[in-house]
Write the structure tokens for this entry.
Amino acid sequence: MRNTLTIFRREFVSYFTTPLAYVFIIIFLVTAGMLTFFVGNFFGRGQADLQPFFEFHPWLYLVLIPALSMRLWAEERRLGTIELFLTLPIRMTEAVVGKFLAAWCFAGVALALTFPFWLTVNLLGHADNGVILASYIGSWLLAGAMLAVGACISAVTKNQVIAFVVTAAVAFIFTAAGSPAVLGAFQGWAPQWLIDAVAQTSFVSHFSAITRGVLDLRNIAYFVSVIVAFLWANAILVDLEKAE
Amino acid sequence: MLEIEHLVKHFGALVAVDDVSFSVARGEVLGFLGPNGAGKSTTMKMITGFVAPTSGTAIVCGHDIARAPIAAKQCIGYLPEGAPAYPDMTAAEFLDFIAHIRGFRGREAKRRIGRIVETIHIGEIMHQPIETLSKGYRRRVGVAQALLHDPQVLILDEPTDGLDPNQKYEMRKIIDEMRSNKAIVISTHLLEEVEAVCNRAIIIAHGRILADAAPAELARRSRRHNAVRFAATGAAAPQLRAELLRLPGVATAEPAEDGEGILILPRDGQDIVADVADLARAHRWQVSLLRVEQGRLDEVFRDITTAAARPAALAAAA
């Protein structure tokens, strides 16, 4: 636990010693704003909610989250610091969780900096702040799930670009799984349980359930289990691949 | 303090380390020698728990690195090959991180870092990012990291690689100062380093231990051990050599390759300098050079490691 915290701190600070943190936060805020106002028709809808803001998060994360996760292990391997890091008296779980938490908290900081949107809806009308809070939690969980996928992929390569591209592709599959286009391809030949199963694996179906204001335990459990499963795989892969 | 038991590592079909066993006691500085690709680094990676052995294990201060990795790693200070460190951190931040992981907090962490900074002389670069440091300073930061918790077992993979002669001298002095209460293993391919700091040397090639002895004893295996360099006037060179060859202990007497007199090699390393001196006196030669050679480690190293390359000679060399 103490080691997890030490590793967390080192990783978290390291985001801010490079321009990555600032570039990430600025791009995240600007794109989120543009999507909300221009594509999501925030003002035109005449409703005091953040639905158009959260709606785009899965697609925004698809591009931005791999940029956070790609360096987690790939960079250690490229620099050779992984040999130093993993010969220190720490447990693999402490290493994996510490790194993940740093990236997740950084994503949380970026998300928290979108508070002006929340201020805006509250100034313009009577917003349902419970729904907004649930949506923020859902969005953070979604970011966590994608980061866990990305951390796991980052563990098997030295090359950050490969880590980025593969993570984006895998995250896309998870995101698009519940979309009408994918489900339509299954319709007609696949049994209903398979269609349901595919829809259930989708980030979007669970995320949009949360943004509708239902902080259902099953949706939270879904994201938490995705995070745990990928971090577990991450630990195994680091152990297997560290010296390659 | 450190026991290596039958370590074997296969990478696919390649046998990188082939049944390596040895132990290192407190106070010993073991030089781990071998050509590139001999299995030195792989062995060190297995001892420190970075690479899992195919079979065999290492016992560090009584802890099996496979069964109790945390306890074993707590006893080890390790400088991996190339002295990797996080480039975006300053040396101070980096050492602070290591101190925290090693379980030191607040004043205790500060005290330990302060002491190590003084020993290794890195005070003036503590607040520079590691990526901006010279090779020598980077290596020193790596050594500082390995020494922070005053480990009982110190494993240094090429600690002086890339350092200039002064820095090498400094690094050897540091190692020498610590030797009394630690078991130290350093890998190197610099033979002068082994002679300077190690009291024991292991030569490894193709994953096997080929020799394990004190550096001076290894040097004694050299053909040149107890050889005599000789130069004199009073007789023509061919005649000098012919007379010398008549001595019972002399195997060959040839002009030295470097042109400095005649190099007289003894049979079976026996002491022949007195016989040579007597002979010169008897013939009333004017001796201008008479020196006993100590035997050269690089020659022994070359003999042992190149013999290992020929499978037929392997058994003889081992």
Chain A has a mean pLDDT of 88. The two ends of chain A are 28 Å apart (CA to CA). Residues 129-154 of chain A form the longest helix (26 residues).
